[in-house]
């Protein structure tokens, strides 16, 4: 009986992984409110499942904090925030929590991923509450 209860909690803690996720999609270069998620940016919530792309299934949200180090043409030296739906699992790249660092010409970027609705609005990504609760219940029952 104990095994069935543990398996049930574990299953429900993971079930959200397969469901469509809702993420904010905005870029502070085009919408300055995207940096601090003021009221205008909060209107940029999209259902990632409704995005049309025949080759990808969107399963997570992303937040990129981009540091543009030099002015190149019309692109000014600035810090940008980009929020979007994502489809590539990058867990093997995580360096700090759910984030990793990458760099290229003139750009340094922190990329953070999360799998809960509206999770890319936060200043840092949050642990799934359902996953955490199910883990605690399973640990308690063991």
UniProtKB/TrEMBL annotation:
Statement: the UniProt record of this protein carries the keyword Signal: yes
Pfam families referenced in this protein's UniProt entry, alphabetically: QVR
Signal peptide limits: 1-20
GO biological process: regulation of synaptic transmission, cholinergic; sleep
UniProt keyword annotations, A-Z: Glycoprotein, Signal
InterPro entries from the UniProt entry: QVR-like, Sleep_regulator
Presence of the UniProt keyword Glycoprotein in the record: yes
Protein name in UniProt: Uncharacterized protein LOC108678901
Species annotation: Hyalella azteca
Lineage summary: Eukaryota, Metazoa, Ecdysozoa, Arthropoda, Crustacea
